[in-house]
Amino acid sequence: MGRTRLFILNIILCILVICSCCATVYAESAGNVSSDFSYRLMSDTAEVEIIEYKGGGGYVAIPDNLGGQVVTSIGDRTFFGMHEITIVFIPDTVKNIGLKAFEDNTSLSEVTLPYSLETIGNKAFASCVSLSSVVIPDGTRRIGESCFEGCRRLNSVFIPESVTEIGNMCFADCDNVTVYCYKNSYTQNYCDLKKINYKDISEASYNPYEYSASDISGSSAPYIQSQSVSWLIYLIGGLVIIACAVFVVMTYFTTKRSKNILFDVGKIKTKK
Questions:
Q1: Is 116 helix (H, G, I), strand (E, B) or coil?
Q2: CATH match for 35-218 among 3.40.50.720, 3.90.1150.10, 3.80.10.10, 3.30.360.10
Q3: What are the pLDDT digits (tens) for 63-76?
């Protein structure tokens, strides 16, 4: 009876492990994988806004999905003053970057903005002193006040024709910046008014708007990484399931063999 109970307990344990593994795989595939972000549900929509980042430095890939909801906004001051972050990737679901969202990220040298982006808030990238180049995606309408103020190493910013509002002091204390824009666009008029150095984008040696969205944003790379992570999770889950199945089978036959041996020994003793 003891071995029967042990066998049943082993089966139950394996089932629990398999269920746990499957739940983890499901959660990963659904996008609910990050413990680095806090978020809030935006009213009357199935969309969320990231409001806090609790991860480390280096490369940060903002997820496109949290809690089963699409991430469409980066909230005010979400990454404010995080000096360890060096590269940020923003997915092609985000429409809004909030007030001071990345202000004073002194090590931030590269940021990938999505083609879904519509507005960039006031001081969103102010005092990002390591930032050297930015491509504002085609489709963006507004760049907030003092957005790049104090980005002293900023030397090039590409701005599309879709931008129809640039806030005051947007490039204050960016002494070496050149704005690349289209001739007779709102941005050119802004640069003329603010006495900011600019060039016609058609004369630039590199025109980012001649390429596809994925070429410019590099959006394929993080998703490839996500898919690789997902496949790794599926592989690990499959191996755990196989290991559990082998364990159950071995336990069964070991228990059965032990019973046969005891039965045979009992017969020998009885025969004697």
A1: coil
A2: 3.80.10.10
A3: 999 988 999 999 99
